[in-house]
Amino acid sequence: MSSSIESRRPSKVSIVGAGSVGSSMAYACLIRGSADVVALYDIAKERVDAEVADLAHGSEFVPSRVMGGGDVNETANSDVVIITAGARQKPGQSRLDLVGVNAGIVSSLMSQLVPQSPNAIFVIVTNPCDVLAVVAQQVSGLPENRVFSSGTLLDSSRLRFLVSQWADVTTPNVHAVIAGEHGDSEFPVWSTANISGVPIRDWTVDGEQTFTQEVLDDLGQEAALAAYKIIEGKGATNYGIGLTGARLTEALLGAGRCVLPVSAIVHDLYGIDGVALSLPRLVSRDGIGDTVPIPLIDSEVTELKASAERLHETLLAIKS
């Protein structure tokens, strides 16, 4: 037979943590066909076995295969490993409040997961994900392009949804990102936000400016606080981040390069060094690439530096 028909190794994503976030992410990856094989791993064997069985019972209707259980060997030979395990954010808590216990959990997991999949790309979703991305990279010693966090990818999607609702256009027409920490110091980059190429401040309806500064402030705050409102209402956010993880998996396994606002360690950027924060980055099978040089106005640079300082202080607190 021709060599062009050579068999291809099935792609595999492993999701660590079978709580509401991990299970929703596995479900999203399955129905979207994000990878050929979706593995779900958790030390809570009874819980993860039940989740895997429930997912597997729908195998007839999805393009991917599910596997998993309570043994870390289930994650072996993964192309992408997504860590969602950790203490859950409670009503009234900030993401940074979780740092102590979750830093220990992520450190322990990396020591177990890397030997199983030494060539994988590792994505941290566990909060505070920016800080834990640095922890995971340092304890593993992996190249920085292969350890990062989902960052503000979901926050930016929330912002784009809110802008689309206000402008009465479909979400794919909206181009806007939230930068900085995935947390209380994040901020929308309004200076480059646009709707199909029209700067957002120039968007009009019947000659009237649609996005006044007051509207922009309200939309930015609503996007930043969305998770708190959802947590207060139902205890956790899971569907949005589940879909986010599936989309990120597709970007990491796809043939081309995507530009996504994810959180990776930055060096010598606006005087920021050694912390992970979100800016648009190239994402591909090689992991995280260069930061896309979007122009920031002075006030946005100030906000980015403030966000970086907040993250730097948290990292120092862990080390002390």
TrEMBL record:
An MF annotation (GO) of this entry: L-lactate dehydrogenase (NAD+) activity
Modified residues (Phosphotyrosine): 228
Top class in the EC scheme: oxidoreductase
Positions with a binding annotation for NAD(+): 17-22, 42, 47, 86-87, 102, 108, 125-127, 150
Domain of life: Bacteria
UniProt: substrate binding residues: 89, 95, 127-130, 155-158, 237
Catalytic activity: (S)-lactate + NAD(+) = pyruvate + NADH + H(+)
Keywords: Allosteric enzyme, Cytoplasm, NAD, Oxidoreductase, Phosphoprotein
Record's keyword annotation contains Thylakoid: no
Name listed for the protein in its UniProt record: L-lactate dehydrogenase
Organism (species): Acidipropionibacterium jensenii
Gene name of the encoded protein: ldh
